[in-house]
From TrEMBL:
<keyword id="KW-0812">Transmembrane</keyword>
<keyword id="KW-0949">S-adenosyl-L-methionine</keyword>
<dbReference type="InterPro" id="IPR033580">
    <property type="entry name" value="Nurim-like"/>
</dbReference>
<dbReference type="InterPro" id="IPR009915">
    <property type="entry name" value="NnrU_dom"/>
</dbReference>
<dbReference type="GO" id="GO:0032259">
    <property type="term" value="P:methylation"/>
</dbReference>
<keyword id="KW-1133">Transmembrane helix</keyword>
<feature type="transmembrane region" description="Helical">
    <location>
        <begin position="12"/>
        <end position="33"/>
    </location>
</feature>
<dbReference type="Pfam" id="PF07298">
    <property type="entry name" value="NnrU"/>
</dbReference>
<feature type="transmembrane region" description="Helical">
    <location>
        <begin position="124"/>
        <end position="148"/>
    </location>
</feature>
<comment type="similarity">
    <text>Belongs to the nurim family.</text>
</comment>
<feature type="transmembrane region" description="Helical">
    <location>
        <begin position="86"/>
        <end position="104"/>
    </location>
</feature>
<feature type="domain" description="NnrU">
    <location>
        <begin position="54"/>
        <end position="208"/>
    </location>
</feature>
<keyword id="KW-0489">Methyltransferase</keyword>
<keyword id="KW-0472">Membrane</keyword>
<feature type="transmembrane region" description="Helical">
    <location>
        <begin position="45"/>
        <end position="65"/>
    </location>
</feature>
<dbReference type="InterPro" id="IPR054700">
    <property type="entry name" value="MddA"/>
</dbReference>
<comment type="function">
    <text>Catalyzes the methylation of methanethiol (MeSH) to yield dimethylsulphide (DMS).</text>
</comment>
Amino acid sequence: MKRILTVGYGATAYLIGFAAFLYAIGFLGSFAVPRSVDHGVPAPALEALVVNLLLLCAFGAQHSVMARPAFKRWWTRVVPETVERSTYVLATGLVLALIFWQWRTMPTLIWDVTWPVGRISVRALFWLGWVIVLSSTFMINHFDLFGLRQVYLAWRGRPYTDLPFRTPLLYRMVRHPLMLGFLITLWASPRMTLAHLLFAAGMTAYILLALRWEEHDLTSVLGQQYDDYRSRVPMLIPRPQIIQRAK
């Protein structure tokens, strides 16, 4: 029974997290969803600013605290290690759902690309960002990243083993292609409202801070191996010579 509950919990967490991922595409692109970054809950300007900032802070706090090794060591005294990652995915999905539900409209227009070729180009860049995000998860291990490998091993009665450090494909060009993809999707908008700008700026600031914490953790775990990787490969912006080598 315990194994069934573990797998069921992991699968549920994954579905909620992946549903939030799919909704985020429509939320940022302002299509196919009832509430988006440009069309949220109507509110006065000050209320919209305060609520949206609090929502961004909630995401940053959840993501940062739960990702820290010290928190994980404490947290796994409360929840089994087999569902620690699934719980993180579930919490992320729920915080994102809160953002999607409570995001306030800030309609002031910052820019609007009206040239048809320009709009198509920016939209193509938006979709390219999402392709980079999703493909990056599979280049390492999508199922480990989202907790499914952990619950599968628990189902099989096998201990969890850490994945070896690898740098396939896009990881030879930049150290964090997943975050690069997110940054592209945040800013690749032909029509930028103040709400979208706040969301993009807040998430960008968080990503840049979080990457420094993550790299500190990776260096602590991998030591010289990760230091060598850092010396060869840029964090987010690929260098032309690296792109040529990756090909």
